[in-house]
Design goal:
By secondary structure, this protein is an alpha/beta fold. The protein is built from 10 helices and 11 strands. α1 packs parallel to α10, α6 packs across α7 and α6 packs across α10. It binds guanine.
């Protein structure tokens, strides 16, 4: 069997289209234009690429974008001052500080300085805690995008055996929380897990977020499983995911390609979160279909 491809690129384009419609409707009904501020410190080339495409897509859906580029040598207090100004700026509904920050900066302190209602990455402790306790939160963009793809493919996830490989605060942990709140049976595996192939063979859903090229073997995949590959690894052979795509594709029921799978969903979900944050701060109902 050859797995179906889960076309994240097409799904994300559709999602951005729905966001653009809701942005236009919000402007017409309430005179409000959502605003997203992106802060980039230093010259990391991959980060610069992300920030540029975030800026472009923000404009495409009719939102206001504010990009702040700061030098590598930026002091902690200057970055905190900028975050405080953005927190206080009514035109800014979402704030994203691009990670990683240069090593001399305290990433945790900077992230937690972001006002929780503007934390469109969902990285502050308050939003992480809200998600973990089933309260209304801002949800990290990549796991939110994975959840949308899984729901689109599988419908209800209740009772399904899901394996999340990776335990990062950005992807693995929030992904596990989201799947749990969908009543999936969730296992979180990581570098110290003993029998990863065995766990994988039981899973109807595999979300791979380990950051190691082609790490998940085709022979580990349960026939018919749905495989979501979050990895983006630059290798001599080009961009590859965390899953051995060619081998897994022969066994899985459905699989996301790299590129063109989860990647485009992350930015689309950032825009979704910005619209959600805007609606909430103005006391409007959550936008349709953009929240978990
Ligand atoms: N760096 C890589 N991905 C992300 C992301 O989703 N958010 C932030 N803030 N930084 C990142």
């Amino acid at each position: 069997m050859t797995a179906d491809l889960i076309d994240g690129k097409a799904f994300a384009a559709g999602l951005r289209g729905r966001i653009a419609e809701q942005v236009a409707a919000m402007r017409q009904a309430h005179g409000i234009t959502p605003g997203l501020a992106v802060v980039l410190v230093g010259e990391d080339p991959a980060s610069a690429v992300y920030v540029r495409s975030k800026g472009r897509m923000t404009a495409e859906v009719g939102m206001q974008g504010f990009t702040h580029r700061l030098p590598n040598t930026t002091a902690q207090h200057d970055l905190l001052d900028l975050v405080a100004r953005l927190n206080a700026d009514a035109a800014v509904n979402g704030i994203l500080v691009q990670l990683p920050l240069p090593a001399h900066l305290d990433e945790i302190a900077v992230i937690n300085a972001i006002a929780p209602e503007k934390d469109v990455d969902g990285f502050t402790v308050l939003n992480a805690g809200r998600l973990a306790t089933g309260q209304r939160a801002m949800v990290p963009c990549t796991p939110l995008g994975c959840l949308m793809l899984l729901r689109d493919r599988l419908g209800a996830l209740a009772g399904r055996d899901a394996l999340v490989i990776g335990r990062s605060n950005i992807v693995g942990k929030p992904m596990a929380q989201l799947l749990l709140s969908e009543s999936a049976t969730v296992t979180v595996a990581h570098s110290r897990t003993r029998d990863l192939p065995g766990l994988c063979r039981r899973a109807e859903i595999v979300v791979a977020a380990v950051g190691r090229p082609s790490f998940v073997q085709g022979s580990w995949i349960r026939p018919g499983a749905t495989v979501i590959d979050v990895g983006i690894n630059r290798t001599d052979e080009g961009l590859v995911g965390d899953v051995d795509f060619a081998a897994a594709r022969e066994v899985a029921g459905a699989i996301t390609p790299v590129p063109g799978g989860v990647g485009p969903m992350t930015i689309a979900c950032l825009l979704a979160n910005t619209l959600t944050a805007t609606a909430r701060v103005h006391g409007l109902p959550d936008p349709e279909g953009l929240t978990p």
